[in-house]
């Protein structure tokens, strides 16, 4: 286990051992982590899942990602590696809202047929309505059933759901509402 600095003995460890020990030190079971919008979260989640498998730990690693992240090649490399290593303890939830910062996912980089692509990468694929709490609960319970395949959950969602001026509009992906827009959004959401 590392203590915050590396001494010569630790540097002599194989690279694989260093990475695994570092992961163990930084991320205990049950902790959360954010990787930002650069599609690095799935690669990190694969590392956490691999470390848990090597240590014979019996917990799942969840990665929540947006569909726009699937434009990045790193994501598909992580998908391939997770399948190769049979990381059945990995569950990737993909927010399939069809919008990213600059427009729709289909305009920028078409993802369909997404389910078929994930299946071809040897993943188990589930789908759910990302706005239905009962369906979310049931799908995630199903995703945790033991398997040797990583699980992708495609969560079909509507960005800005329930707010008339935000719903399905890509410009709200990174825009902050002003005071009047905030009040209107809260009024509309309270009517649901």
Quick structural overview:
Helix content is 40%, strand content 15%. The protein is an alpha/beta fold.
Describe the structure.
With 192 residues, the protein is of the alpha/beta class. The protein has one domain: Rossmann fold (3-Layer(aba) Sandwich). It is built from eight helices and six strands, in the order αααβαβββααβαβα. Strands 1-2-6-5 form a four-stranded parallel β-sheet, with helices on both faces. Helix 3 packs parallel to helix 4 (73-84). Mean pLDDT is 85; it is low at 1-8 and 10-16. Pfam families: Transketolase_N (PF00456). InterPro entries: THDP-binding, Transketolase_N. Residues 29-186 form the Transketolase N-terminal domain. Its cofactor is thiamine diphosphate. Keywords: Thiamine pyrophosphate.
